[in-house]
Amino acid sequence: MYKLRMFNMKWQLLNYFLISSLLTVSSIFIVLEYYSRELASWEFRMWFLVAILAVCLTVGYVATKRWQRKVDELHVAMLELSKGNFASRIELEPVEPFMYLYDAFNNMAASVEERVQLLQKLGEAEAIRDQELTENAVMEERRRLARDLHDTVSQELFAIHMSASSLPKMLERNPDAAGAVMNQLIQMSHHAQKQMRGLISQLRPIELNDMSLQEALEKWFPEYCRTHELQGQLDVSLRDPISEAIEHQFFLIIQEGLANVVKHASAQGVRLAIYEREHQYVLQLQDDGQGFERKDISSASHGLSTMRERAQKLGGDVEIDSKLGSGTRVRVRIPRFTGHTGIVTKEREGESHE
């Protein structure tokens, strides 16, 4: 079909060529037949050549003008399509050499319009779905926050209230024991304050903005540790830049992990390390807190499952190692795809962090 259409266009050009040739040959024949004597004059020959040239140029001009107009129509339609006017079409004439080309353009424009409409509908549906997911996430976060407040700060405050209520009678009956109760109140209020700071820090997450992961951690991690009275140790060993998506997920995982340390671990110190192996990026967060039994890992914290979900989004996994009285270590591994060498060096760097 394509060859047939191109043949029709070539045939139209051939028609113009034949017309021009026929006019030229006819003119030469007439002159030779009826004006043979006048050919001896150079003036006659010159005017005859001028006439032949004028005829050929006229035929060429008419053909060029007609084709140029058709090409301009196609050009304008293509510009309209490129500007987003997907309803742009070219009117077809019953008999013309460009009919098949125009028809092909109209079919292409209709196909593009149909696909753009489909993409728009999919985009609208995705936007609605994302909005619903966001609303569900907000509701889930509110429920989690309410649960954490009830399990930590609310119970601490209730215990403080009960101890404070019994203090006046204790001062009357046993003043010596009141000092121990006062110390207990101070410890419980201090612990409740730490719990509340941890919850507030989750409500105000820090974003990377235009900083790299290492720059953000060097600024944020020491301040976070000071705020929550933790001895922090940071070790980031990344030779090559990592993708923005991995940096973002790593940062969110670190925030979630440190919030768990503050809320549940009762730790004095925490060590954060990020390094690269041959085929992996590794994030390791370790504390010296109270730890928990392996059988309780799945239910120990909502944050642990959140960290696992974030790692799985990037094809990674999370390993949690904890024992009662021996602290907790969370290790996140994300696949690393690269084509350069340096395998031995990076593997040794990874081993040095183990």
UniProtKB/TrEMBL annotation:
<keyword id="KW-1133">Transmembrane helix</keyword>
<comment type="function">
    <text>Member of the two-component regulatory system NreB/NreC involved in the control of dissimilatory nitrate/nitrite reduction in response to oxygen. NreB functions as a direct oxygen sensor histidine kinase which is autophosphorylated, in the absence of oxygen, probably at the conserved histidine residue, and transfers its phosphate group probably to a conserved aspartate residue of NreC. NreB/NreC activates the expression of the nitrate (narGHJI) and nitrite (nir) reductase operons, as well as the putative nitrate transporter gene narT.</text>
</comment>
<dbReference type="InterPro" id="IPR004358">
    <property type="entry name" value="Sig_transdc_His_kin-like_C"/>
</dbReference>
<keyword id="KW-1003">Cell membrane</keyword>
<keyword id="KW-0479">Metal-binding</keyword>
<feature type="transmembrane region" description="Helical">
    <location>
        <begin position="44"/>
        <end position="63"/>
    </location>
</feature>
<dbReference type="GO" id="GO:0016301">
    <property type="term" value="F:kinase activity"/>
</dbReference>
<dbReference type="InterPro" id="IPR011712">
    <property type="entry name" value="Sig_transdc_His_kin_sub3_dim/P"/>
</dbReference>
<keyword id="KW-0067">ATP-binding</keyword>
<feature type="domain" description="Histidine kinase">
    <location>
        <begin position="148"/>
        <end position="338"/>
    </location>
</feature>
<dbReference type="InterPro" id="IPR050482">
    <property type="entry name" value="Sensor_HK_TwoCompSys"/>
</dbReference>
<feature type="transmembrane region" description="Helical">
    <location>
        <begin position="12"/>
        <end position="32"/>
    </location>
</feature>
<keyword id="KW-0547">Nucleotide-binding</keyword>
<keyword id="KW-0808">Transferase</keyword>
<dbReference type="InterPro" id="IPR036890">
    <property type="entry name" value="HATPase_C_sf"/>
</dbReference>
<keyword id="KW-0418">Kinase</keyword>
<keyword id="KW-0812">Transmembrane</keyword>
<dbReference type="InterPro" id="IPR003594">
    <property type="entry name" value="HATPase_dom"/>
</dbReference>
<keyword id="KW-0963">Cytoplasm</keyword>
<keyword id="KW-0004">4Fe-4S</keyword>
<keyword id="KW-0597">Phosphoprotein</keyword>
<keyword id="KW-0902">Two-component regulatory system</keyword>
<dbReference type="InterPro" id="IPR005467">
    <property type="entry name" value="His_kinase_dom"/>
</dbReference>
<dbReference type="Pfam" id="PF02518">
    <property type="entry name" value="HATPase_c"/>
</dbReference>
<keyword id="KW-0411">Iron-sulfur</keyword>
<keyword id="KW-0472">Membrane</keyword>
<protein>
    <recommendedName>
        <fullName>Oxygen sensor histidine kinase NreB</fullName>
        <ecNumber>2.7.13.3</ecNumber>
    </recommendedName>
</protein>
<dbReference type="Pfam" id="PF07730">
    <property type="entry name" value="HisKA_3"/>
</dbReference>
<dbReference type="InterPro" id="IPR003660">
    <property type="entry name" value="HAMP_dom"/>
</dbReference>
<keyword id="KW-0408">Iron</keyword>
<feature type="domain" description="HAMP">
    <location>
        <begin position="65"/>
        <end position="117"/>
    </location>
</feature>
